[in-house]
Design a protein that fits this description.
heterodimer; A: alpha+beta; 6-stranded mixed beta barrel; 13 helices; 10 strands; elongated; B: alpha/beta; Rossmann fold; 6 helices
């Protein structure tokens, strides 16, 4: 016996068209919830993709070493996720690690990052800003195009500083500030370069370079006795060697520290530690959107119940001419599926339209992936079945004689 | 023609009880009836005598409380609802007083409806339905909606629907009840034509004038057969079991409430 699939699909589309406005409104109820979920998933996905791309963008040959405050790398509890995105009170990474890594085979460049909040004083009043202590290797790893001047030199005897584009403007009301001096904690630094505007406030270094000043790590001791290295960026000579270098760093640093109190990540999982918080926030937002989906689902159930009671007579006729309870059940189940699937597709459209609208003001694009489409379709089907089940069962169990006698 | 033919419907000691306790009454009580192929049976009687209940049970829409029902020689009183539904689709054609066409479907789709549940594909369904409609001279109105046509036309569509699955028996519940005399006449002529083509029809009616079309008239009273008369001495009709002619048997079960349900 065939399942009358074609007939059910045809019937449900016909019934959607017959009650156009009512059906469409119900679908929009589903669409709103779906749009929220699409928005959240695509934006958070886009954000993660952005970070991964920055690291593995060129050749996938960058590794990031981060201190791990929790000893266990397997501990993925909620609190440790949040903790991992904060600046570390006590970093386990030292300048010695930097030297060790730079001596490893196939390592092309190493750039430690030690970020501190400091007041910088230019010509006018002091301005709060981030001071990044690093080495000249940073220029090699992160693309930092210079507007004026040159990047730091490790061997220089001077207190050199490179200003971010916006920071330079705030300090001096000018961009061409090479040769000026900036005071950081009473120490005088000579501006040797100004960065071009980058406009990427979100990256795997957690630094907005436009708003930061960069100094050499070996000079940073003057302004901060207790310098913490938050991460070490490592550029590998070629992609093929990445895995080997990854292992070597792990081995060498474990030997140095005596315990694995750090983690090495590469492009694919660089976003894991920095931005698992985004995931958590995304899940919580999705949950809220899920509540609106339940509301939409109740709307579907409501309309289906109306439809069933409106068409009591039709049910009676269909049963009289040979429809089984199962046939009737499937017919109404397909109808609620149509409502929720059309809602899901509308939501997909709305969600992406909105996501692209928002992203035009953001430094990243929303993620377009079949996973999101899959999630939306699966949820639509689930909602359609779940909330269509009760009305369909009600339709199926109507008594044919009473139904035939039913007057509207 | 003395050989015994297989009756289409055979009811033995059939009872249908409604209500329980004090409210209990029998819409049908210990009813015996045999309907042979090719008969045009008209069931008459006052409202509440159990005519419609009998028709519903014969149409497998309802189940009897007790007794035996053989449809095409098969006992059907205990089969599952699912198989009952399939049997309705395969063996029985219904015609109702208020036509009962699905309002959202056009004429040809309405006629093709029973074939849906037989699992026919769409083209085949529509071809078969179209052929049946041609017999009723309705082929120009295949794509009309039910509300665009007169009552008589609607009823002819309903008859076409009842015929589309080649049923063993056609059950009609006051098919002319909602029609004026002219349309009644047209519909009855159609039914007669169907009967002449060899179909078996059981029809419930209030209108005594229509009994001229029938080959057998049954009068019911209080859930039992009161009189059972063959109106036309139809030589072509096969003779049935020696049980005939049937007469009402004395009631065996007392009824507290004689008011029936039509």
């Amino acid at each position: 016996m065939s399942f009358l699939l074609n007939t059910h699909i045809h019937n449900s589309i016909e019934s959607f068209r017959a009650n156009r406005s009512r059906s469409l409104l119900t679908s929009v109820g589903i669409a709103v919830g779906m749009a929220c979920i699409v928005l959240i998933l695509s934006l958070s996905g886009g954000l993660k993709q952005l970070l991964v791309d920055q690291v593995s963008g060129e050749n996938g040959n960058i590794l990031v070493v981060r201190p791990e405050s929790n000893r266990s790398a397997n501990d993925k509890s909620f609190l440790s996720l949040i903790g991992s995105t904060q600046t570390y009170a006590r970093s386990s990474l030292t300048t010695k690690d930097v030297e060790t890594i730079s001596k490893l085979k196939d390592v092309k460049a190493v750039a430690p990052l030690a970020i501190t909040e400091n007041n910088l004083k230019g010509e006018q009043e002091a301005v709060a800003g981030k001071v990044v202590a690093t080495t000249e290797g940073l220029d090699n790893i992160v693309e930092l195009p210079l507007e004026y001047g040159a990047f730091l030199e490790d061997s220089s005897q001077l207190n050199q500083i490179v200003l971010g584009h916006k920071l330079s403007q705030r300090l001096f009301d000018a961009v061409e500030t090479v040769g000026e001096t900036v005071k950081v904690k009473d120490k005088v630094f000579l501006v040797v370069g100004v960065l071009r505007e980058i406009g990427e406030p979100i990256n795997y270094n957690d630094i907005d370079f436009d708003e930061s000043a960069i100094i050499a790590l070996n000079r940073a001791g003057q302004i901060n006795d207790n310098l913490q290295i938050q991460q070490i960026n490592v550029k590998v000579a070629n992609q093929a060697a990445t895995d080997k270098v990854f292992e070597n760093i792990n081995k060498q640093l474990t030997k140095l520290h005596g315990e694995p109190d750090f983690s090495v990540v590469n492009g694919a999982n660089v976003s894991n530690s920095t931005n698992r918080l985004f995931d958590v926030v995304g899940y919580i937002l999705s949950l809220v959107a899920g509540v609106s989906l339940v509301v939409g689902g109740i709307g579907v159930m409501n309309i289906m119940l109306v439809s069933v009671s409106e068409r009591t007579r039709e049910i009676g006729i269909r049963k009289a001419v040979g429809a089984t309870n199962g046939n009737i059940m499937m017919q109404f189940l397909f109808e609620s599926l149509t409502l929720s699937l059309i809602g899901g597709l509308l939501g997909l459209g709305f969600g992406y339209a909105f996501a692209f609208g928002i992203s035009s003001m953001m430094p990243f694009n929303p993620m377009v992936s079949w996973q999101i489409v899959g999630v939306v379709l699966a949820m639509s089907v689930t909602i359609g079945c779940l909330f269509g089940l009760f009305p369909a069962a009600r339709a199926a169990h109507k008594d044919p004689i009473d139904s035939l006698r039913h007057y509207r | 023609m003395n050989e015994r033919v297989q009756p289409i419907i055979e009811l033995n000691e059939l009872s249908k009880r409604y209500g329980i306790g004090d409210a209990e009454y029998f819409a049908l009580s210990n009813l015996n009836l045999t309907i042979l192929p090719g008969e045009f049976v008209m069931i008459m009687g006052p409202s509440g005598c159990g005519k419609t209940t009998l028709l519903n049970i014969m149409g497998l829409l309802d189940r009897a409380t007790s007794g035996q029902y053989l449809l095409d020689g098969k006992a059907v009183e205990r089969i599952s609802r699912r198989r009952q539904a399939r049997m309705r689709g395969n063996k029985i054609g219904f015609i109702f007083q208020n036509f009962n066409l699905v309002p959202g479907l056009n004429v040809i789709e309405n006629v093709a409806l029973p074939l849906v549940y037989r699992g026919y594909y769409k083209t085949r369904r529509l071809t078969v339905a179209s052929k049946v409609l041609e017999r009723f001279h309705l082929q120009e109105r295949e794509y009309y909606m039910p509300w665009q046509m007169s009552g008589g036309q609607n009823q002819r569509v309903a008859i076409a629907r009842a015929l589309v699955n080649n049923p063993s028996i056609i059950l009609a519940d006051e098919p002319t009840g909602n029609l004026d005399s002219r349309n009644s006449h047209i519909v009855m002529e159609e039914l007669k034509e169907i009967h002449d083509q060899g179909n078996t029809i059981v029809m419930v009616t209030h209108n005594a004038a229509l009994t001229t079309y029938a080959t057998r008239v049954i009068n019911m009273l209080d859930g039992q057969i009161d009189t059972d008369v063959k109106t036309t001495a139809d030589a072509d009709l096969p003779t049935a079991a020696p049980k005939e002619p049937k007469k009402a048997k004395p009631r065996k079960k007392p009824r507290k409430n004689k008011k029936g349900k039509s």
